[in-house]
Amino acid sequence: MDSQQSNDRSNADPIPAVSLPDQRLAAEQRRREFRYRFPRDKRQLGGKFTVAENSRRLLRYFYFERRLMQGLGAWTLSIPEFEVKLETGRHIFYHADAARMLRERLAEQEMRLPQIDDFRDAEIDGFIDELLMADSSVALLAGIHQVVGQTLATAYRHHIDDTDPVADAPTIRCLRRILVDYEPMLDWADAAIAAYVEGGLEEAPLAQWRWHLQRLLASIGGVTGADPRGTAPQPLRSQSEPFQRGTVPRRDSRFDTFKDTGDYDLADGQPRFPADSYESLRLRFIRTQRDEVDAIEAFGTFIWDIRFRDFQSEYDLARITWDEARHTEIGHRALLAAGYDPFELRNRLTGSTCRGPMEPAFAMAEINLFGEVGVLKTINNLIDTAADRNDELLRHIADFIRSDERTHVRKGRTILKVMTSLDSQALELRTRELFTECLVSLGAICKDMDLFTVSREDIEHLIGE
């Protein structure tokens, strides 16, 4: 249909209704006699978007959410502040879940999942590349949350207002569900950035960075791609130096860290309880959970390292990252409940130090084949002993952690198939070799040890997942 035909049709007289008088009167009579006066639905047909325009916008939203999930994952090793690393683990999943919901809605609007997953936008990629060049955790928060996050939240609210409330109700429900996570996430980010400033951070460079990113986002038409385009700011950091994810785990000044051993007693300088006693095993388990801050780093980094290979694997990794953030919170709060200042207990960096520079398949194999399986080998007996001793604190937290780890082992096997074509035997052997080399370099095992004889159990203990 050409434009003239389209205009002729839009200007045509409306088609009149043809009612039969007796049927209309009968309908009116039946309506009067109906006893129930239900709430009136005030929604009206009509909206600004066609299915095609709706899908175009939702696809951009999906891509932004996917890239934010990946980008936050790339930063997990480099964030030193404990609370920020925890929240980042949570927010990675919020963005992943938003991408999942948008992806499902797009699949309902005549798009195939491979078509959605294969979508790329060079302008959005360029914006994300610049965003990730933040020079600090607080600058990252400002870009992710106060620039992109706030703009996406506004776009979602406008989309809810502008789309057809009847015909496009599924999109409205999808966006409202996303905003349920967005509201506390953005509120937290504002409060965290305020804490940095109140703690002495100079605000002017942060404001300059925020303005820089806002102008860059405007230059690509905003998150919808439909806004008036401004001029991109110059220079861009990403043009002179491409983004590289960190490889070294960072901790804030409250932590006392160690990486040259996997033994807490050795790192502490003396045992707190007799070796192999319930008290010793109990404290080790709780400390290990607090130290799963390194698992946030691992799984977040995997999302970045395997980006665009498989959406479901990215999504599952994001969910596991959130789980590991919860485990870290559980360990931290359990130490408080057990009477400790959590920061008095040294933090083990061995796992992240080894995994940070490593290819993702082998780093993932260490956690999945050794670490999480190792937890499941011992946790049942620990829970039973805790119940016998009426230790409700340990029984309670270990019960929830056990259910998570079972899920992680199951999902991890599928993720590993995306990461590598090696069979399980070859993958396990090469992972043992690489981790042995790393442990030797850290001084965690003797240099004269046969590099091919370190057992699964040795790695489970020395890395300590």
Structure, described:
By secondary structure, the protein is mostly helical. It has two domains: 175 residues, Ribonucleotide Reductase, subunit A (Orthogonal Bundle); 207 residues, no CATH class. The protein contains 19 helices and two strands. It has a two-stranded parallel sheet. The mean pLDDT is 92.
User: What is the total number of structural domains?
Assistant: 2
Largest sheet, described in full? 2 strands, parallel
- Percent helix: 55-70%
Radius of gyration from the CA trace?
Answer: 27 Å
Q: Write out the strand line-up for the largest beta sheet, numbering strands in chain order.
A: 1-2
> Which outline best applies?
globular
Structure summary, number of beta strands: 2
Order of helices and strands: HHHHHHHHHHEHHHHEHHHHH
Span from first to last CA?
A: 64 Å
Q: Which residues form runs of ≥5 with pLDDT under 50?
A: none
User: Structural class given helices, strands, pairing?
Assistant: mainly alpha
**SS field, number of helical segments:** 19
Average pLDDT score? 92
Our estimate of the beta-strand percent is under 5%
Short structural summary:
With 465 residues, the chain is mainly α. 67% of the residues lie in helices and 1% in strands.
